[in-house]
Each structure stands twice: as structure tokens, then as C-alpha cells.
Amino acid sequence: MKLLSVAVPCYNSAAYMRHCIDTLLTGGDEIEILIVNDGSFKDNTAEIADEYEAKYPGTCKAVHKENGGHGDACMFGLRAATGLYFKVVDSDDWVDEDALQKVLTALRENRDKGVDLFVANYVYEKEGASHKHVVRYGNALPKERILTWDEVGTFRVGQYMLMHSLIYRRQLLLDSGLELPKKTFYVDNLYAYQPLPLVKTIYYMDVDLYRYFIGRSDQSVNETVMISRIDQNIRVNRLMMEVYAKASIDNRKKQSYMLKFLEIVVTVSSILLVKGGSEEQLAKKQQLWDDMKRDYPEVYRQLRHRPLGIALHLPGKVGRAIMIFGYKVSQKIFGFN
Q: What is the pLDDT of residues 126-136, one digit of tens each?
């Protein structure tokens, strides 16, 4: 069994996928690289995937499928994977080669200890930015030892464990019933969230493993694009609400973390709708909260009366201006797009 399986979802990715795959290949024989061609048709993504499989048999595997979106490609990668641990690296991102060696060493040394989740830092490689913001977790997660949730500290705003920072035990992902919806953007939040109720042990390494490229005008996390796809973001919000409402969460600190994670995701969707500014978009914001109140009243009660929930319901144009100002300040502080 390989130590680590890495799924690389690719959709018309010929311009940059080689860099991603080449950085992963430095992991050697312990890595299985699943190059998932998600129905690409505009370039030679499929041929590049086949080329890597032929050149690196036993390490690279080309997985060809009809277009189903990023989440569906991740699920195809998970189902095809055979490694003990599983990670997703998007084709326009890459990993730091030195950090990868350190992570593999930690995975190897702890492979028989049943660690559920390995966490490492990620770096915003924002186009045009001179400062590269690094998301670290040292204040919340003691370094380089197996932790339970009772030993986890407090996560700061903007410090959530996202897909970029996570390496799950593959069987745990399967046991969680994870099924990312097809042709829906922003499912990386659901990927980082739904398995958490099953996570009992965590291992954190303070290394900058994942390099998260951000800044292309067509990128899904571009703000204008996010507003245009807000219905998909809302769909993910509702799926996360369902997870939180129905899960048996066995630890108080885990529950607190999951609530804060859900809070920030709902906040971003609400702010984007406010920034959109049309009557239809403002109505969608209200509908999001009304649906939460109807379908998940306990979740609504918890989120509505927290500081962000209160701020998101400031009335009138002045209230909306305050929300947008706070959002812009957060962009400057945390470096996101």
C-alpha cells in the first residue's frame, strides 16, 4: 500500500498541470498521483495525463471521466486511490518539495498509529502580491505530536483548516460518507468539514507544504466570479448546516470549531450577496437565513446571536456599508482574494 495518494483534478489544465505533478513526483515511490481528467476538451490535458502514467508507471495514474466539476473529480480520485492517506492538490497549485519530504517522513513514522488527520501550512501565492501570506496553526495545534481535540487550542479568524492544509486517513473519508456534489464550486469547504465528526486524532507540522495560487480572473475564488456563482456557494452552505445539525459531535472543542467554521462560510456568502447589491441578491441573503431558521433552528439560534450574525443583520444602507468595510479590512489582513 502506498503511503499517500494525491488526487490532482484537471480541467483544461495543460498550461500549468505539469508543474503541479512534477513537484509531487519528488515524493518518490511512497506517493500515488491520480491525475483526474475531468472531461477536458480545449487542450491536451488528457494526453499529458496519459504521458505521465506511461512515464511513471506505479506512481502516476490517469483517470479519465466525463465533466462533473471539481468535487466530482475529487471523488473519482478518492475512489481510485489505494494509499493509506489521501490529499487533493489542484492542478494550478503545487507543493513545496522540501516540505513534502518532511510530511512524508511524519506519515511514515506514524503510519501504524491510526492518526486521522495530518495538517500542514499553506501559502497564498497571490498574483502580483509581494507578501505571501502563510496560514499557520501553531497557536491552536501543538506541533509534531499526536493530539486529541481536548489538546486543541483556539483558532483565529481566517485560520480554518481548509482542503489545502489537510491530509486525511483515506478510510476515514470513506467512512464519513463524503459525497461532493457534481458541477458545484466551493465544495472544498464541505470536504474540509463533513469528515470532522469522525476525526479523533490530529498531527500538525509547521511546514509550508501547499502553495495556493490565487489571482487569475477566471478563478472560482475571484470575488466577481463568486458573486456570479453565489447559488452554488449557498448550496454548499446548506449542506454544511445539515452536517452540523445532524452529526454526533463527541467533543466540545470540536463542536466549537465546527460552529465557527460554519459561521465564517455563511458570513462570506452573506457579504458577497450584500456586495452584489441587487434586490434579488439581498433577497437571497434573507432567504439563506430564513431557510436556516426553518430547517435548522438550533443552528440559526447559535449563529444569529454571535457577533458576526448580529453584524450581518445591520439594517439599511449604512448597515450594508459597515459590512462591506469590515470585509475589505479582512481582505487586507488575511490576504485572500
A: 876 677 889 99
